[in-house]
């Protein structure tokens, strides 16, 4: 290491990148990584946390990303220099000026008047929140004529929320779907939910929920529907047999609670509340857990649309100031909105389907860092942290999806007609923003440098999603080439910047999954991790086709870790089996080497279909058992929809579609 000299010419006493121990003892440190010479000599544990210091130089990857971005911009400047862009700018300016003048006129046409201005009303482009007769706030955009009815009950429901809840309760009793849960079992499931699920996908605000559930009993923040949905999803993290419809099948955990929640939701969706949105969001995760992808996707869209209906995507400060809603209600509403946003983006990248939520529609405030959830400690039986930093993690996750949402939509849009140069510019620009995002993460959201010390479990999730974003950004641009040893094959182009970025992120995903398993076990990991492992495995499989022995060996070693992680996750999340089957099929189609086939669990001595146990089917291509059909279904379509209180259940055909997924056979299904 080069000696460092101050402005006076005297050598510095300490390195600006000294390890923690040398910095504390104020002794000279040579800054060697991973262990400095002083710590080696003294036999001390050496750690660096200098990433929080402004004195640390930017990383090599960040500098390279900036250089690539500069080259891209210079190329564009040369290409478009002298282009006549002023005409469009002038016309845009004139149009903007015209709009501004129109707004000014509409705002001032009746000065100092207590009467509303018709001109101002019809030129308003912000829309309006209205309070209906049911007491709920509803949103109408400015294109709707109902937005002109300020503070009027234009959005009232034909049936009150209380009536719908009573109808749901009668139906549960009539059909024998009501589930009674003991206080001990409820508390067990709630503890799992707060520790492992809600810290990552922050859907339920803990304190208002518990206060309402245990003390107030107002059902404003804790309703039977929301409690059923929480317990149904939390059941996936538990090994207790009484939660399973079939004690031998972990995939049936929480089935009864989920069916109860779905029946209540059928009624409450006619007049949704904030708790209805929360429950629907949790049910979407629960249905994906049982590999009911279409139903989970449907629930995700329902949650987002109900949130739009209640105007949760808007800044509600004015409604707090005027006393229409409390600050706590506004805070819970904002939290629920952003949880719908995160879910929407997770489904967007996980299933490759369009987002329901667009950035230009949002004005809601981010969850406040002053919230108690930020400072609440997190602990399990082996580890404890003085602060959970849940809100910091939520805000960083939102920022990550805001950075990548539009670029990935543009890159993967089927109708995209972007020129190659434009696409390259979009990739380099987004990559620089991602590198900046990672560099600027606060210390509480960074991975702990030492593998011996754990990081918060939800922080691991943030970094998994970061590396998935890197892979998805670069994956479409990985080049292929032939090779002399395999003239008929195609292999990833060695040295490609896009391949390097994908490979490094795939390796990091493998490392994070290994650390999570070491410190927490993968029995307690959220379902979104499956897509991360799946995404990394695709890149690792690709590298396993490389003619370079070193790259191939490294990829296969990491592939082993990722596949083992998917197997571990399959106990809680049946969707993991689907990912495993896809990986194995790709391995065969890509003709990877025998060691790679073994890494993904393919064995030529796999049992045949005749070897399957009763009720179990085997995939003939992969040789692994598929989930049994028993216990996977929702409602039995033969259930008679008898009248309740003199009234028959409406939408008889529709309820079968919404709450029951069609049975399937073989290796795939349509829902």
Helix content: 40-55%
Provide the gyration radius in Å.
28 Å
Unreliable stretches covering 5 or more consecutive residues: 1-9, 11-15, 98-113, 608-618, 620-671
Q: So what's the overall shape?
A: globular
Structural class: mainly alpha
Protein name: Zn(2)-C6 fungal-type domain-containing protein
Domain Zn(2)-C6 fungal-type: 18-48
Region (Disordered): 81-122
Keywords: DNA-binding, Metal-binding, Nucleus, Transcription, Transcription regulation, Zinc
Describe the structure.
With 671 residues, the protein is mainly alpha-helical. Among the domains are: 1-46, Zn(2)-C6 fungal-type DNA-binding domain (CD2-Gal4), CATH 4.10.240.10; 161-365, no CATH class; 421-602, no CATH class. It has helices at 20-25, 37-42, 60-80, 86-108, 118-123, 161-175, 183-197, 206-216, 224-234, 255-268, 274-289, 293-309, 317-321, 327-351, 372-375, 390-412, 420-439, 457-474, 497-519, 529-543, 549-569, 575-589, 594-599, 652-659, and strands spanning 128-131, 137-140, 378-379, 384-385, 480-483, 486-492, 617-618, 625-626. The strands form four sheets. The chain has a two-stranded antiparallel ribbon. Helix 17 packs antiparallel against helix 18 and helix 19 crosses helix 20. Mean pLDDT is 79; it is low at 1-9, 11-15, 98-113, 608-618 and 620-671.
């Amino acid at each position: 290491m080069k000696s460092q000299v101050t402005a006076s010419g005297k050598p510095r006493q300490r390195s600006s990148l000294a390890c923690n121990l040398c910095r504390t003892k104020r002794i000279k440190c040579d800054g060697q990584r991973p262990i400095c010479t002083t710590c080696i000599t003294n036999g001390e544990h050496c750690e660096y946390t200098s990433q929080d210091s402004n004195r640390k130089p930017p990383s090599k990857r960040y500098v390279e990303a900036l250089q690539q971005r500069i080259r891209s911009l210079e190329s564009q400047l040369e290409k478009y220099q002298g282009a006549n862009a002023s005409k469009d700018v002038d016309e845009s300016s004139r149009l903007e000026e015209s709009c501004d003048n129109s707004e000014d006129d509409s705002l001032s046409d009746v000065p100092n008047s207590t009467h509303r201005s018709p001109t101002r009303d019809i030129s308003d482009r912000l829309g309006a929140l209205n309070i209906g007769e049911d007491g709920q706030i509803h949103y109408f955009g400015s294109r709707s004529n109902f937005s002109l009815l300020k503070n009027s009950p234009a959005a009232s429901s034909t049936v009150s929320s209380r009536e719908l809840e009573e109808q749901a309760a009668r139906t549960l009793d009539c059909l024998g779907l009501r589930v009674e849960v003991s206080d001990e079992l409820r508390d067990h499931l709630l503890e799992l939910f707060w520790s492992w699920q809600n810290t990552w996908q922050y859907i339920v605000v803990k304190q208002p929920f518990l206060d309402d559930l245990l003390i107030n009993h107002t059902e404003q923040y804790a309703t039977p529907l929301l409690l059923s949905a929480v317990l149904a999803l939390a059941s996936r993290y538990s090994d207790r047999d009484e939660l399973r419809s079939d004690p031998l099948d972990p995939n049936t955990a929480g089935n009864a609670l989920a069916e109860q929640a779905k029946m209540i939701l059928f009624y409450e969706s006619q007049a949704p509340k904030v708790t209805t949105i929360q429950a629907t969001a949790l049910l979407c995760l629960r249905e994906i857990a049982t590999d009911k992808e279409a139903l989970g996707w449907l629930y995700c869209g329902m949650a987002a649309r109900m949130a739009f209906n209640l105007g949760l995507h808007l800044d509600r400060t004015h409604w707090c100031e005027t006393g229409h809603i409390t600050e706590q209600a506004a805070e819970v509403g904002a939290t629920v909105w952003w949880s719908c946003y995160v879910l929407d983006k997770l489904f967007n990248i996980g299933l490759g389907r369009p987002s329901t939520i667009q950035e230009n529609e949002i004005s809601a405030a981010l969850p406040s860092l002053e919230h108690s959830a930020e400072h609440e400690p997190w602990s399990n039986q082996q580890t404890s942290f003085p602060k959970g930093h849940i809100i910091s993690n939520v805000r960083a996750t939102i920022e990550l999806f805001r950075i990548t949402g539009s670029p990935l939509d543009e890159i993967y849009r089927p109708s995209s007609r972007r020129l190659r140069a434009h696409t390259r510019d979009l990739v380099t620009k987004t990559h620089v923003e991602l590198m900046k995002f990672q560099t600027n993460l606060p210390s509480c959201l960074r991975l702990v440098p030492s593998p011996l010390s754990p990081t918060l479990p939800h922080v691991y999730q943030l970094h998994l999603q970061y590396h998935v974003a890197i892979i998805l950004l670069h994956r479409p641009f990985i080049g292929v080439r032939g090779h002399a040893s395999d003239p008929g094959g195609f292999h990833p182009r060695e040295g490609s910047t896009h391949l390097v970025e994908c490979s490094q992120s795939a390796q990091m995903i493998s490392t994070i999954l290994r650390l999570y398993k070491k410190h927490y076990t993968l029995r307690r990991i959220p379902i979104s991790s499956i897509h991360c492992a799946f995404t990394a495995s695709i890149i690792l499989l690709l590298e396993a086709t490389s003619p370079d022995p070193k790259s191939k060996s490294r990829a296969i070693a990491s592939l082993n870790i990722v596949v083992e992680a998917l197997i571990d996750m399959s106990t809680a999340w049946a969707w993991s089996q689907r990912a495993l089957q896809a990986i194995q099929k790709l391995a065969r189609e890509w003709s990877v080497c025998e060691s790679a086939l073994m890494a993904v669990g393919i064995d030529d001595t796999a049992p045949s279909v005749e070897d399957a146990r009763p009720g179990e089917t085997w995939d003939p291509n992969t040789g692994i058992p598929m989930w049994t059909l028993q216990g996977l279904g929702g409602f039995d379509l033969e259930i008679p929809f008898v009248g309740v209180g003199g009234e028959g259940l409406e939408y008889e055909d529709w309820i079968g579609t919404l709450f029951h997924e069609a049975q399937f056979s073989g290796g795939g299904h349509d829902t």
